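Schema walkthrough. Field components (list of strings):
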Amino acid sequence: MKRDVDIPLGYRFSVAAAGIKYENRTDMALIYSEREAVAAGVFTTNRVKAAPVVLDMKRLRSATARAIVVNSGNANACTGQRGMKDAESVCVRISERLDIPEKHVLVASTGVIGIPLPMDRVYGGLEALTGGTVGADMEDVARAIMTTDKFPKFASRRIRIGKTDAVLSGMAKGAGMISPNMATMLCFLLTDLAVEKKTLKRTLREATDRTFNLITVDGDMSTNDTVIMMANGLAGNSPLTETSPGYRRFRTALLELMDELSRMIVKDGEGATRLMIIRLRGARNAADAKKAAFSVARSPLVKTAVYGRDANWGRIMAALGYSGAFIREDSIDISINGIKLVGNGLATGRDPEASDALKHGAETVIDINLKLGPASERVYTCDLTEEYVRINAAYRT
Amino acid sequence: MKRDVDIPLGYRFSVAAAGIKYENRTDMALIYSEREAVAAGVFTTNRVKAAPVVLDMKRLRSATARAIVVNSGNANACTGQRGMKDAESVCVRISERLDIPEKHVLVASTGVIGIPLPMDRVYGGLEALTGGTVGADMEDVARAIMTTDKFPKFASRRIRIGKTDAVLSGMAKGAGMISPNMATMLCFLLTDLAVEKKTLKRTLREATDRTFNLITVDGDMSTNDTVIMMANGLAGNSPLTETSPGYRRFRTALLELMDELSRMIVKDGEGATRLMIIRLRGARNAADAKKAAFSVARSPLVKTAVYGRDANWGRIMAALGYSGAFIREDSIDISINGIKLVGNGLATGRDPEASDALKHGAETVIDINLKLGPASERVYTCDLTEEYVRINAAYRT
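Field assembly_structure (string):
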């Protein structure tokens, strides 16, 4: 059964099964705005950038976009000049079929690295995407962009700004290679609000830092990470700027939406059985808070302990100790799922109770208080399981 | 059958089964020098340091040592004041039983964090260690200090300096929580050479940086990492300094010995099926070389690909890209086990051949040339398997 979510005005979707790598499933999607939309993007900081990322970064310097074409199964990364030409050809074909300027077409890819796109199949897919068949919905798009994801990720928020009702929606994929500063994650955000270009760009950047850049699955960072947002203005408001009365509401709704999508990505971390929420406070400063929280979130030993339902706080202490953050062993408090395990650096003896609590519920909350200052940070991650290894040992072969 | 290795003059060993955590095996060891030995140590850089580490760091400021007491099964870490007192009590007891000054006794622990040492059992073990029974050998010691290790790690080198024949020996344990800047690794190095204190300290530090600090299993760094070296001078040479004629030979032998032990640790990485050797060259500078090599060595995706016998060089490119080192995608060459997979950033198409090669042999060599400068680095790691997860999900419970 499909989950019903609101869709902003003026967007249409289609999907196709091009057989790029997978069989018997959709692997291409088209997101299309009936009207030119203000657009902004945030991309991987990996020095090895896939062709579609390079192309989009260039295109998004101009103000507007109409369409995003996505494929799964092939990342079009490490494919050199040919990869760039292929990405451009995709845009040219779409611009011809939809009769829109080529510069208004964005492109995204996810999948295996280093193999050129099979362009014959891609062209077949592009025909199907623009063939005027019955429209797809956001769930269909979210499914078509999945790689090792186990469920489609999409969500919406309805907001009212002045007299304008509007919608913010997002579709994402994640699963593996998820790390701060993005991941092989793709996320497409759409709204019918009108938002001034600079404001859209800055707000998207900020919200990405507060959401997708605070999740980690395995510490690997992809060559293809992409967050693109389109705002087509069909809701009828006057373009939002950072001083508009409705701006804060827009910003909050976007943050909430992206937070929800980022949780979905971690929850669907390859092989994960638990969403882990690391809440760190009491750090001397923001940099230390982030270092300490990520050190715990990334520790394979902490992640396997959670998978083993073992409240092994010693591994958390060790991860804090090597995080690079300033800590004092004898001022650290640690709780797991609300059960205090460490007070001022020493065991409380409640490990069995906490290990038992780990057996229940899909979420594990690790609260850490360094008691050294005012800074805090929150990071999402997931446990590390045999299944993660199995998926990644078999993924390409 | 026991492996025969040379033992330097004047050292004696004993082991005991104290039942600290494990049953039916030895878990305590004593290394004893008949004569006061010049001693030096290198310890974890984790801010959370186990009690024995804190104690040894203090003791090694003085020039000499006679004994090292080690236990497995309990790390005596995160145990506060009580942990410090327990570590001191161990030394006091040994000093009484052996009639040597307390300050000449060093102590090391490995195992679970956060639980106080069961001192009644430890005292029982100390009695047995000093009970004058038949002497143990280095293999016995190497076995007694194992935690999740699958084989005992020990080795020797025989060297001749001038007219003096001497031996360098080492015993180590590793397995999990292995990362640069040490690991839950313990290593005890013994020689009958005379070495001047400052020289011993500096050479040990340098050799540790070139060996144990260039290995990684899972990126976790322990609270207990310890490398201690004793040089008792019974070989009869005049104390080595950095300007002695034999110094370079000593340094080389020590490096080789520690390299051999560090390879053993990685080979026995938890769940590992392949020793991976990352050889990176052509970096602009040493810092970049290290960053790039470690980024590949630590990538869970690269490690699972090797486990899956998949020559997935795209994951290597991605890891280089996010390493923080300066790279140019189009100048990178990558080979696996001598088979060139990437030339100037592009696929050579030999992946099937390389994947096939991955099926054979216990070692996987990944050669990377960035072609940007003169710096190189070599890092040892191992593949990531379901078994790693299984071991670490079940380790404490």
